[in-house]
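Journal club side-thread
Mid-discussion, someone asked how the predicted structure for our own chain would compare to the paper's figures. Pasting it here so we can look after the session.
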Amino acid sequence: MGLVSLLPLVLIFVVFYFLLIRPQQKKVKVHRAMVEALRRGDRVVTGGGIIGAVTKVLNDNEVQIEVAEGVRIRVVKHTIQEVLSKTEPADKGGESGQKAANDDGSGGGGSGGGSTGGGFGLSKLFGGGKKSGN
């Protein structure tokens, strides 16, 4: 009779493990791998919403990000939430880190108002949608 009363508690724990704990562990593992793979030239988004390009990996915990021309900030690596675009290794292609900012890979230039196809519309984020009159 005692084991039967513990069965609902055990079932609840098993459900929590498979629905909450295990997916969170996978998410942490993917984020850790993303942070460890950061390199110079990668376009990233921080936890605070700042978008910039990695200019230097300072140590295991910090990177330097250029958020505007000549404006560089130091950021703790684990606060980086997303990598918008990766760069090729420096030994293959030189220092062409600006390619991602000028690339309109989705083909959706112009004034359509939205991106068609599978693109995210990064050209709007990185200056493609600037207003011309001030």
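Post-session note: The longest strand covers residues 51-57.
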